[in-house]
Amino acid sequence: MRNIFSIITDMILTRKCPGCGEPVDIFGESDICDVCRPGFKDISDKMFYVANIEYLKAVYSFSGPVRHGLHRFKFRGDGAAGAFFAQKIAEMVKKEKYFDGNCVFVPVPGNIEKTDREYVQAEFLAKRIAKKLRAEYIGDAMRKKKSVISQTKCRTLRERRKNVENAFILNKGAAEKLGGKTVILIDDIATTGSTLASAAGTLKKAGVGTIYAACAARTPTGRENGKKYIVRFPQNMKTVYIVPAAENRQNI
Ligand SMILES: [Zn+2]
Questions:
Q1: If pLDDT is split at 50, 70 and 90, which confidence band does 185 have?
Q2: Collapsed DSSP state (helix, strand, coil) of residue 199
Q3: How far is the C-alpha of 221 from the C-alpha of 245, rounded, in Å?
Q4: Helix (H, G, I), strand (E, B), or coil: what is residue 41?
Q5: How many other C-beta atoms can be found within 10 angstroms of the C-beta atom of residue 149?
Q6: Nearest-CA neighbor of 245 among 231, 234, 233, 235?
Q7: CATH assignment of 39-245?
Q8: 182-190/104-107 β-pairing
Q9: Domain map (residue ranges) of the chain
Q10: Helices (H), 18-111
Q11: Of the residues 106, 128, 155, 221, which has the fewest C-beta atoms closer than 10 A?
Q12: Whole-angstrom distance between the N-terminal and C-terminal Cα of the chain?
């Protein structure tokens, strides 16, 4: 059995790569190992437009080691990877023009009952981000309806959209807590943006005026379940902007 000293030394001196989970040189400059670093593609300069949301930004493209890291965080309770992504989202949000200390961080509610994790990843992220930026965190504004299945089980964009339509219910007192405030919705991964759009629509019913969204990663436009998608920037922001590429359009 390891003694307490070695456990504490490990905790202080070991840094784990958020991509592969392997130890990283603690005296090195980067938190990410040399192998994974090129795979952390920063897309935080891009704005994505989703219904009910001013714009969405994600720190990384959801691929390669970012995908591995977020999966470990999501399914295997790797809190170190989660803390890394929270830090990166906080750094991104801090640079946004809209951000000031009066913004409120709200996580997209998830399904906790189906997992053995102790946390819903969006809550984990939003709590830490709010703490880092000394902003308010409100985690109980809404909840997810039980009938909603995981978005990863939906095969087409239409299925995804239908699955999350009216997926969230406002909790009592949400309007008093949130009315008139600027909300930053937090989720781990954005794919089509349908979940964020639905959650934001629910918050609007509570009188929230302005909503932005920030995620750790976004599925790269190009491929999803082997299908190509293109991005459309509509004049009318009330439309979900991601549409399947022409060759797949008959599938939805
Ligand atoms: Zn690595």
A1: very high
A2: helix
A3: 10
A4: coil
A5: 14
A6: 231
A7: 3.40.50.2020
A8: parallel
A9: 39-245
A10: 64-75, 79-94
A11: 155
A12: 56
- Measured in Å, residue 23 CA sits from the centre of ligand 1 at 8
Structure tokens at 239: 């439309």
**Ligand 1 centroid – CA 115 distance (Å):** 26
CA–centroid distance, residue 15 to ligand 1 (Å) = 11
**Token output for 124:** 């984990």
Give the position of tokens 């309770």: 77
Span 133-161, average pLDDT: 80
Give the Cα separation of 127 and 123 in Å (integer): 6
Q: b/e string for 93-114 if b means 16 or more Cβ within 10 A?
A: beebeebeeebbbbbbbbeeee
Token reading at 175: 């309007």
Q: Which residues surround ligand 1, an ion (CB under 5 A)?
A: 17, 19-20, 33, 36
d(CA 130, ligand 1 centre) in Å? 27
Distance CA 30, CA 106 (A): 29
Average pLDDT of the chain to the nearest whole number? 81
Take residue 3 and report the two structure tokens written for it.
Answer: 């003694």
